[in-house]
Structure formats: structure tokens, C-alpha cells
Design brief:
The chain has about 300 residues and is an alpha/beta fold. It has one domain: TIM Barrel. It has 11 helices and 8 strands. Strands 1-2-3-4-5-6-7-8 form an 8-stranded parallel sheet. Helix 6 links the parallel strand 5 and strand 6.
């Protein structure tokens, strides 16, 4: 009788021992695809750049994504050309399972009468999850600028902010004035890393913008934030900014982005993924799940 009970117990318990750990779902929210043949080109890439001055299209990217276990991608437009908003949707339409969202760029029309019809047209494709502002708008930050941001929030779309054309102080003001708008700060707010301590001004502004609950931070472009290229690959070099981001935004408002193909200036895709995971995996499986997929799905409202 005791043997029968033990055997029954083993039938219940044994399968739980055999269950393999579920692979980490990875959604990369910062990938650039581009063609040098596009009318406006890609102005930020120098012609003598042997790594980046080349077409980077799905045929190149998809095998890399598959090899690294990437199950979803949010494409971020590489330039400010208005026609490229639709181009990014079109060039990825063949593989919607992988390319689950597109962040366009409406820097050149936000705050103008051109914004609404273009934005509404792009939103007809549900994969158009929002847009980025990187250059200053034609009409600066005024009532029309906020009008368009409120329209964006009402449509359920999001805003990426690339610091450079904007400041962290301005991002905080925008977040407070449009609290229903989901905002994400790309690349840790444009910080420059040189091995020295983070500047007090940057830390103060970063902390301030994080206090707005509608603001997220993209854990992206780790290599690209480094002043001297190629960038270091040791976690210790990046730990100060990662510690600050985790302290300020917590596990629920941080989202992973590789910044491919810019990552290739320093190393292959696997190396930047390994670097990011080496920090967050130590904080537990639930934290990594949030960073690499759950927060992205919620923020960008992707399926």
C-alpha cells in the first residue's frame, strides 16, 4: 500500500521536475531599418562609416533576430523624412509576427496643420504605435504642439523622445501637461558615458522626469552612449547609469531596445543582449520578463 501511494505521488511530482524553464521572450523596441536609396537618405550616417553606411533591411535583420531569440520588434524610424513613416510600415508588412510595431517620426509636422491628416492616415495601420520627436518642431513647443500631443494620447498612441533636440527638463514639462500620453525617453535621456561619474545636472534632471508616472525609460543604445568607440563590453562600465535607471523607473517602467544596427559599431547583437541580460537577470526572472517583453507590450499597446 505504501509503495502504491509513493508511486502515485511520483506521478504527480515528477512532471514538475521535468518542466524546462520557459525561454525568455524578447521584444526589441529599438531597431532601425533603412535604405540609402531613400530620397532623403540617412543624414546622420557618415559616408565613410564602413559599418553603418549600407542598407539595413529585413533580409539582414531577420536572421539576426531569430538567432538571438527575438520574438518581436518595434521598429523606430531612422530619420525625419515624412514619407519614411509609411515606408517603415511597408517594408515590414511581410512579417507582422516579428515586426509588431512601428514608431515613426513626425518631428517636422508636429504643431502644424499637416500633423492631424498624416497622423490619422498612418494610424489606419494598427502597427503604427506612435512616433518619435527628435528635431525641434517648426513652431516650437506651443499650444498647437500640445494640441497634437493630446490627439496622440486620445488615439492611444505613444511618444518617443530623443534627447538632443529636447532636454530632460522639457520632457518633464511635456509629461506633466499631457498626463494621459505614454512617453518614453530613448537611450537613457541622451547621457554620454566616458567612465567618469554621471554629472549632477543629468542625475537631477533624470530623477525629475522619472517622477511622472506616464514616463518610461528605454534601456537602449548602451554602446552608443559611450563617447569613445568602440565601447567597453564590461558591465561595470555601464552599472552607474543602469543603477540610476532602475532606482528611478523601477521594474515596471524600463523597456529593452538594442539600437541595432548602431550596436555593430562595437559588437554584434548577441553582445549587447548579453550585456543587458547580465544586469537584469540578476534581479530575478520576473524583472527580466518585464524589461524584455511585458513592459513593451503594455507601453506600445502591441499584440
Amino acid at each position: 500500500m505504501k509503495r502504491l501511494k509513493l508511486a502515485a505521488l511520483m506521478i504527480v511530482i515528477l512532471p514538475t521536475w521535468l518542466i524546462a524553464e520557459e525561454p525568455l521572450q524578447i521584444i526589441d523596441t529599438h531597431v532601425h531599418l533603412y535604405s540609402l536609396a531613400r530620397p532623403e537618405g540617412i543624414g546622420w550616417i557618415k559616408k565613410d562609416d564602413k559599418v553603418l553606411y549600407a542598407d539595413h533591411l529585413p533580409a539582414v535583420h531577420e536572421p539576426i533576430a531569430k538567432a538571438n531569440g527575438v520574438t518581436g520588434v518595434v521598429l523606430v524610424q531612422a530619420g525625419q523624412s515624412l514619407p519614411d513613416n509609411q515606408w517603415n510600415l511597408d517594408v515590414t508588412a511581410h512579417n507582422k509576427k516579428l515586426y509588431r510595431g512601428v514608431v515613426g517620426n513626425l518631428s517636422m509636422v508636429i504643431g502644424t496643420d499637416e500633423f492631424k491628416p498624416l497622423f490619422e492616415k498612418l494610424c489606419e495601420d494598427p502597427r503604427y504605435v506612435g512616433y518619435r520627436i527628435s528635431g525641434r518642431p517648426k513652431n516650437e513647443i506651443n499650444d498647437a504642439f500640445y494640441r497634437d500631443l493630446k490627439l496622440t494620447a486620445t488615439a492611444g498612441k505613444s511618444l518617443d523622445i530623443l534627447l538632443g533636440g529636447y532636454t530632460l527638463k522639457e520632457a518633464a514639462i511635456i509629461a506633466n501637461k499631457v498626463p494621459d500620453l505614454r512617453i518614453i525617453i530613448d537611450h537613457f535621456g541622451g547621457v554620454q558615458l566616458d567612465g567618469n561619474p554621471l554629472t549632477p545636472e543629468y542625475v537631477a534632471d533624470f530623477r525629475a522626469v522619472s517622477k511622472s508616472p506616464n514616463v518610461y525609460c528605454k534601456v537602449s543604445a548602451l554602446y552608443g552612449r559611450v563617447k569613445q568607440q568602440p565601447a567597453p563590453k564590461e558591465l561595470s562600465f555601464y552599472k552607474p547609469v543602469l543603477d540610476l535607471a532602475f532606482e528611478c523607473f523601477g521594474e515596471d517602467r524600463l523597456i529593452y531596445g538594442s539600437d541595432w544596427p548602431v550596436t555593430q559599431t562595437t559588437g554584434d547583437y548577441a553582445s549587447v543582449l548579453k550585456l543587458t541580460r547580465s544586469y537584469f537577470d540578476e534581479k530575478g526572472a520576473s524583472v527580466s520578463k518585464k524589461l524584455f517583453s511585458e513592459n513593451a507590450i503594455r507601453f506600445y499597446a502591441i499584440k
